Amino acid sequence: MPSTDPRPTKNQRREEARAKALALKQEQERRARRNRIVAISGLAVAVVALVAVVVGVVRQGQETAAMYGDVVYGSADAEVTAPALADVTSPSVADETGGIPVSAAGIGTAGEDDVVVSVYFDFMCPYCGQFDAANGAELERLSAEEGVTVLYKPLSFLDGTSKGAAYSTRAANAFAVVADEDPDNAVAFLTALYENQPEEGTTGLSDAEIADVAVEVGVPESVTEGFTTTVEGTYETADGEQTGTWRTFAPFVAAATAQASTELGGSLGTPTVLIDGTKWEGDLYSTGPLTAAIEEAVAAQG
C-alpha cells in the first residue's frame, strides 16, 4: 500500500543531517571532556601517591639517620680523616694490621712460622657471604690445626649501600666486640652473620637482630649489650678537629679499612684472600680449591 507521508524535502534532509552531525559532535566533546577529567583525576591520584612515597622515603631516611647517626667514626656530614691503627682502641685480640688472627694457639695469636691466610671481607658484601658458605668451615678447620693462621680483616667500605644505616660498620663493630669480650664465639658469630646476611641496598639487620644472631651462637647478652655502646671523642677532618659520638670500635674499623686499602694497593674489593701476603687468584666460591692451595703452601713451608 503506498505511503501517504510526504517525502522529506532536500532542505529537511540537510537539516536532519546537520542535527545528527551536531549531536555526534556534542557527544564526542562530552566523551573527550569526561576522558580529560578521568585522566586529570588519575594524574592527581598518581601525584598524591608519588608525594606520599617521597615523603615516606624522606621520613624513613630521617628516622634511619636518627637511629644510626652515632654509628660511624665521626660525623656523617664530614670528610673524616681515617685514623692510624696505632691511634685507636682495638679489640684485645687484634694485631697491628687491623686483623684478628685465629690459629691452633687460639684467637688473637698467630702461630709461629704459620702460613698466614688473610681474608678481607665486608659484612654487606654478597660475594663474601658466598665465599664464607664455601670456605668458612674449611678455614675454621685449618686454623685449628698446626701450621695455619687465618687473619680475619673486617672492612666497612660498603657502608654507603645500606641506606644510611651504616650496616658494614655496625656488623664489624659487633664482631669486634665479640672478638674482644667473647673470643671463643667470634668465628661462629661471623659465620652466623653471613647465614643471616641482608641484601645489599637495604638497611641491613637492626641492632636487635644482630644481637639475636650473636645470642643464637652462644654470645652472652652482657656482651651483645656492648654492640650499641658509644663513646665520645675528637676526630680529624679537612676542616680540622671535630667532636663526635660513635660505636666503641668504629674508629678501629675505619682505621682497618684504610690499612687494608694500603695493603691492597689502594683498591678495595671483597672478598680478597692473601696466602702469605700474595693474592690468591683461584676460585673463591667453591669448596676445595682454596683449601688445596693452603695445604700446598703448608707442605712447601714444612
Overall description:
It is a single chain. By secondary structure, the protein is of the alpha+beta class. It has 8 helices and 8 strands. It has helices spanning about 10-70, 125-145, 165-180, 185-195, 205-215, 220-225, 250-265, 290-300; strands at about 100-105, 105, 115-120, 150-155, 230-235, 240-245, 270-275, 280. The strands form 2 sheets. It has a 6-stranded mixed β-sheet with strand order 2-1-4-3-7-8, sandwiched between helices. Strands 5-6 form a two-stranded antiparallel ribbon. α3 (about 165-180) crosses α7 (about 250-265). The radius of gyration is 33 Å and the shape is elongated. It starts with 9 loop residues before the first helix and ends with a helix.
